[in-house]
Amino acid sequence: MNNELCVVGLGYIGLPTAAMFAEAGWDVTGVDVNTTAVEKLNRGEIHIEEVGLGELVKESVDAGRLKAKLTPVEADCFIIAVPTPHRADHTADLTYVESATKAIVPFLKKGNTVIVESTIPPRTIDDVVAPLLAEAGWKPGEDIYLAHCPERVLPGRILIELVENTRIVGGINKVSAQKAADVYRSFVTGDILLTSAVSAEMSKLMENTYRDVNIALANELVKISEKLNIDALEVIQLANHHPRVNLHLPGPGVGGHCLAVDPYFIIEKAPEQSVLISNARQINNSMPAFVVEQVKRLLPQSDSKVAVFGLTYKGNIDDVRESPAMDVLSLLQSEGYKLGIHDPHVQQEQVNFHLSSFEEAIQGAECILVLTDHNEFKKLEEEKLVQLMKEPLVFDTKNCVLIENNNIEYINFGKLNLKKVLTFES
Question: Is residue 258 a part of any domain in this protein?
Fold first, then answer.
């Protein structure tokens, strides 16, 4: 008989994880409160966009190794992969983690392994999850094995990185870590590092905080360079020739459910000691307003039309969570600009803004504002830009667009303060 697994949460991490375990031979039941997600999975379909996932899910469903339900079932192992959003004050909302833990309690058996993959603040396993299991009469680490194994994958490469990346498994005790590690060994080829739950929690948060702080440094460099008339992108390129320097690239802000959220989970636990992390968050949060200020310099007439390209927080995915593009759009609207919004990866039901085709978005526009580095934006149909736009101007905040037509003005974060830009009139 195959091992049985119950995965609670069928989102961007839970669904690929469930599919990978099913491919590895587990009998997997995915659980979600989203009826559409459950119904689609049982038809062998997916409700999110991820390279290779649709084929993998269909294969596993057809083989009878993967199904979905609205409530948990008995299993040998339970994986909790639910969201951990932050509240208005940026503290972690653990409601979903707590609810998922309570939901599996009636189905637990002695010897089960419970793994939390959701990103959580330090000490959540010890101070929140373990007590919930204890209240139900279990002894975490003795008759129920409890661990935290944070996901650390890149959207667009999730199925590859679930297999190949090093996994950190933090147990509430050593035997729990070992039991959880054995679960992942069924398909993970990367190293599996065993540690405590709290170290696993903090390591995941610091991975994303490191990147957030690095991006904040690049974004601050852009602001400094704009004031001093320096090409920030050239500076980064030159500095990165140093063998021990790796400056990240600037952008319109930081989004997603990792970099834009995880640092706050550290800040809430030690606010007085998290000065650098907190400042980095403020810098990155300020970038949408900075982008709009540059648009206002380029297009001083606030009734001008801006074609906004890209709503997701990174390229070639459909995830708009915490995307800085949403803030840019709101600010542009409040300034009175007319907007044509285009994103080939986003469905209309995902957003409140009206989405347009490429042609509709650029028709009569005086500027294309690129906020996401989708592959579709790297080489635009330049003839249509010249024909349909009122002024063929591209402001590329992701430094991803290749423009070859000399009749199209191109601006990125390395060319913000050139005189040609300052005197540009629409």
Answer: no
Contact 371, 357 (CB under 8 A): no
Domain boundary, last residue among 167, 185, 203: 203
Q: What is the DSSP string of 289-339?
A: HHHHHHHHHH--STT-EEEEE--SSSTTS---TT-HHHHHHHHHHHHT-EE
Read off the tokens for 234: 């050239």
Same domain flag for 14 and 128: yes
Tokens of 76: 């040998």
DSSP state for residue 348 in the 8-state scheme: G
C-alpha dihedral sign at 150, 152, 156, 161: negative
CA distance 101 to 79: 10
5-49 pLDDT, tens digit each? 999 999 999 999 999 999 999 999 999 999 999 999 999 999 988
**Is there a catalytic annotation at residue 67?**
no
CATH number for the domain that contains residue 186: 3.40.50.720
Q: Are residues 314 and 179 in the same domain?
A: no
Active-site residue, from 6, 40, 77, 204? 204
- The total of structural domains in the chain comes to 2
List 6, 149, 258, 400, catalytic entry = 258
CB atoms within 10 A of CB 276: 12
Mean pLDDT value across the chain: 94
Query: Region 339-347: what's the mean pLDDT?
Result: 96
Provide the domain limits for residue 400.
287-422
Is residue 156 within a helix (H) or strand (E), and if so which, with residue range?
A: none
204 has catalytic annotation: yes
Task: Round to whole Å and give the CA distance between 118 and 79.
Answer: 9
pLDDT given at position 418:
55
* Domain boundary, last residue among 172, 188, 203: 203
Domain for residue 228, yes or no? no
Find the helix or strand (DSSP H, E) in which 208 lies. Answer: helix 197-228
Inside any domain, residue 254: no
Spell out a b/e string for 76-97, using b for 16 or more CB atoms within 10 Å of the CB, else e: bbbbbbbbbebeeeeebebebb
What is the rounded distance in angstroms from the CA atom of residue 328 to the CA atom of residue 153? 27
The answer to whether residue 267 sits within a structural domain is no
Spatial distance between the Cα atoms of 392 and 387, rounded to a whole number of angstroms: 9
